[in-house]
Automatic annotation (TrEMBL):
Record Gene3D superfamilies: P-loop containing nucleotide triphosphate hydrolases
Swiss-Prot/TrEMBL GO biological process terms: nucleobase-containing small molecule interconversion; pyrimidine nucleotide metabolic process
Name used for this protein in its record: Cytidylate kinase
Residue ranges of domain Cytidylate kinase in the record: 16-227
Organism placement in taxonomy: Bacteria, Pseudomonadati, Pseudomonadota, Gammaproteobacteria, Lysobacterales
Gene that produces this protein: cmk
Binding site residues for ATP: G19, P20, S21, G22, S23, G24, K25, G26, T27
Family assignment from sequence similarity: Belongs to the cytidylate kinase family. Type 1 subfamily.
Enzyme Commission (EC) number: 2.7.4.25
Leader peptide range in chain numbering: none
Keywords: ATP-binding, Cytoplasm, Kinase, Nucleotide-binding, Transferase
Primary location: cytoplasm
Coiled coil spans: none
Record bears the keyword Nucleus: no
Organism: Solilutibacter pythonis
One CC-aspect GO term: cytosol
Length: 238
């Protein structure tokens, strides 16, 4: 990339929304992106998609080189269906429902600890930075992928509330799962995501942390938009 192209790329505004599972990243990011008319990157879906592609291809998840090669060849597309629902197409197949399973989240978390897998997905994530702007959700959006983002948010909520939210979400989809086992899975996944050596889950030093425990979706959206508004009107520092 030449200097002029790089300068044009980094002039495109980015809002990063990182946080643990069930903190509301996807829900809040989608709504904020819609209000702003910006693009949206669900980076977790990329890790989930690689995990699913690896399972389809019989790749051993313990073999780092094989999983990295799988990450490099996996084709992932985001599309809205006729009802406007977002779908994720992995190597030409609609994998949306499978990607949402907690087993896919756990597989994604395991392969996301591999440095080669993370490296394989960097360019694809940068490709989402297109005018007029991008809202990017994940674990390392503000720390690693878009460290120059002008707006960074880290969402949290108590583990109990996050498990309850996920439980309700799964029940609505007709997936029956015990709340206690879900809580255990979520806590274990957060622990692995936060303790890994490469791009661990943690707030960027310049992120605004919002604890969403007991705060409704629209109130969180309003807080994020207010933050953005404040930053946009902040006078440039000398
Ligand atoms: N602030 C909130 N209050 C109550 N429920 C929420 C809140 N934020 C998100 N949810 C719900 O919690 C569930 C998980 O949210 P999601 O956006 O998928 O989280 P994440 O992307 O962080 O895993 C969804 O059903 C969503 O509607
Ligand atoms: N930027 C990202 C996004 C997700 N991951 C990994 C770690 C997460 O446990 C899995 C799944 O992420 P995803 O955001 O889809 O999961 P939740 O919706 O928060 O439950 O992927 C990551 O390491 N880096």
């Amino acid at each position: 990339m030449n200097d002029a192209t790089e300068a044009a790329r980094i002039a495109i505004p980015v809002l990063t929304i990182d946080g643990p599972s069930g903190s509301g990243k996807g829900t809040i990011s989608r709504r904020v992106a819609e209000r702003l008319g910006w693009h949206y990157l669900d980076s977790g879906a990329l890790y989930r998609a690689v995990g699913v592609a690896a399972a389809w291809e019989g790749v051993d998840l313990g073999d780092e080189a094989a999983v990295e090669a799988c990450a490099r060849r996996t084709r992932i597309e985001f599309r809205d269906d006729a009802q406007g629902e977002p779908r994720v197409i992995v190597n030409g197949q609609d994998a949306t429902d499978r990607l949402r399973l907690e087993t896919s989240g756990a597989a994604a978390s395991a392969i996301a600890a591999m440095v080669g897998v993370r490296a394989a997905l960097v360019e694809m994530q940068h490709g989402f930075r297109r005018p007029p702007g991008l809202v990017a959700d994940g674990r390392d959006m503000g720390t690693v992928i878009f460290p120059d983002a002008g707006h960074k948010v880290f969402l949290t909520a108590s583990a109990e509330e996050r498990a309850e939210r996920r439980h309700k979400q799964l029940m609505q989809k007709g997936v029956s799962v015990k709340l206690s086992s879900l809580l255990g899975e979520i806590v274990a996944r957060d622990e692995r995501d936060a303790s890994r050596a490469v791009a661990p889950l943690r707030p960027a030093p310049d992120a605004v942390v919002i604890d969403t425990t007991g705060i409704g979706i629209e109130a969180v959206v309003a807080r994020v938009l207010a933050l953005l508004d404040g930053m946009r009107h902040e006078p440039a520092r000398p």
